[in-house]
Each structure stands twice: as C-alpha cells, then as structure tokens.
Amino acid sequence: MTDLLFALSKILWFPARPGHFAIIIGFIGLFMVWRGRRSGRWLILASLGFFFLLVVTPVNQWLLLPLEDRFARPSPPPAHVDGIIVLGGAVEQNITEARGIPSLNGAAERMTEGVILARRYPDARLVFTGGQGSFVHGGLTEADVARQLWTAMGVPQDRVIYEDQARNTHENAVFTYRMVQPKPGEVWLLVTSASHMPRSMAVFRAAGWRDIVPWPVNYRTGHSWAAWYDAPFPERLGQLEWGIREWMGLIAYRLMGRTESVLPARE
Predict the structure, then answer these.
(1) What are the structural domain ranges in the chain?
(2) Looking at the DSSP assignment, which residues form a beta bridge with residue 191?
(3) Please, are residues 194 and 219 in contact by the beta-carbon 8 Å criterion?
(4) Are the C-beta atoms of residues 49 and 225 closer than 8 Å to each other?
C-alpha cells in the first residue's frame, strides 16, 4: 500500500500541479473552440486568468507565509544539542550522476546549515535522511550526494549517519527514528525548509520525536511589498506550486493518519 501511495502521489501531481493544470485547461479550451464549441472560451479565460492572477497579486506569498511563519528557530539557541537531522530534498542526484559533482537545488540551505550546525555543536550526532524521492531516478540516492558534498566540505564520514531509504517526509521520520532511537530528554534539531517545517514537525512528532526542535532554513517570503513582488514570474509560479503541494500534503497526511492535526501546534 505504501508503494502504491508513493507512485500515485508522483503520477497524479504531474497533471495536478497548477502550472501544468492551467496549460492543460487552456489547450482543452482551444480544442473546443476549434471544434466550434463556444464554451471553450471559458476554459481559455480561466487558464489566462490563473497566470494573470499570479502576475498582479502575491498569491504565492500568501500561500507560503502561514507555513513559513508557523515555526521559528528557538531564541536563544539551545546550549546543548544531542543530534541534528537534515531532511533530503536539497540535492539533485540525477544531475550529480550525470556530471560527477554534487548538485544542489533551491533548498541548498538545508545542506549548508547542516555543516554550520555540525561545527557549532561538535559533540552532536549528525543525521541526513533521503533516499530516492523522485519517480524517475538513476542509481544515486540523496544520501550518496550528501555524503559526497559533506565529505568534500570537511565533515568526517564517521560523524554522520546517512539514512538512504526514505522517499518522503513520513519515511524520513519513521526510518530515522528506528535508526537513531532517541532517548527521552535528548535535544534534536530538525533542519528543513521553512515552508516544509509544519508538515515535517507534524509527522516527526507522530513518529515519536516528541521533543524535536524546529530549525527552519530556506525562507522564500517576507512581510514587505518588496519581498512580495521581487521574484520573477517563473520563481513565483514555483513558489505557488510548492505552497499548494505543502497544503495538500498537510491534508493528505492527516487523512492517512500520519499526523495528529493538519497544522501542528507551535509548542
């Protein structure tokens, strides 16, 4: 069942992602008009309206802001940390395999922050969790790429636990818990993108990580007009799609019983 849900989530997301869906609707409308059905004009208008809305309003920011503002880093930071967990999603294993050097995507701060925290807390255990999160992939896992990158950055290999089987956030939480077996009272930091933090905190808590501490990175929103309209259109579309995917993921995880609430409590 888990494999089926994973496959369905990847297959259905391709036509469902907003940019793709708007284009599909537009082409259906064009075909209907070409066949003489005037009602197709409404589909064309809906398609164009979606892109126009994204141009003139910061709807992408409105979707992401509640997610990114949900959890903040603790202030002051913990004086003692037992472990640091870095979630996958920041590396490009197919490009790495093709070019032979570690390749990162827009969530690269997950990887750099992991190194920063490892140096700030030299006695903490460092865990990277990420297997094959993409539906079409080569032979490298995200953990393979992380190992290449962190080793090149001077992180000793025996310092890091690499979990290389997880395909999604739920498996990140469950598999890492099984590997690490955290003890009551231990302080563990969870490093992931700020917009991904609510779903991550919810699923990690449900998997047994009751006292895990959020450490968000990779912010994409602000509270000023400059931040709302600064990004170019392709980036704004990507932010919108990411925001919708996160909200859908929060709802889906709750319906599947993987979390205890759609939006987890801050404390």
Answers:
(1) 16-56, 73-218
(2) 86, 215
(3) yes
(4) no
Q: Contact 175/149 with Cβ under 8 angstroms?
A: no
Amino acid at 16: A
Give the closest residue to 175 by CA, choosing from 221, 207, 199, 223: 207
pLDDT digits (tens, 9 = 90+) for 40-85: 999 999 999 999 999 999 999 999 999 999 999 999 999 999 999 9
Contacts of 171 (CB under 8 A, 6+ apart): 131, 165
Backbone angles phi, psi at 23, to 5 degrees: -65, -40
- The position carrying tokens 């969870």 is 190
Cα–Cα distance measured from residue 108 to residue 214, given in angstroms and rounded to the nearest whole number:
17
Find residue 192's DSSP bridge partners.
216
Neighbours of 225 (CB within 10 A): 9
Q: How far apart are alpha carbons 97 and 69 in whole angstroms?
A: 36
Cis peptide before 76 (omega within 30 of 0): yes
The Cα–Cα gap between 234 and 180 comes to: 39
Cβ-based neighbours of 140, under 8 Å, separated by 6 or more: 93, 94, 96, 97
User: Which CATH number is 73-218's, of 3.40.50.620, 3.40.190.10, 3.30.1490.20, 3.40.630.30?
Assistant: 3.40.50.620
Q: Which amino acid is located at 108 in the chain?
A: A
Helix or strand (DSSP H, E) at 148: helix 142-152
pLDDT single digits (tens) 169-217: 999 999 999 999 999 999 999 999 999 999 999 999 999 998 899 999 9
> How many Cβ atoms sit within 10 Å of the Cβ of residue 117?
18
List, in order, residues 6 or more apart from 200 with CB less than 8 Å away.
87, 169, 172, 173, 190, 192, 214
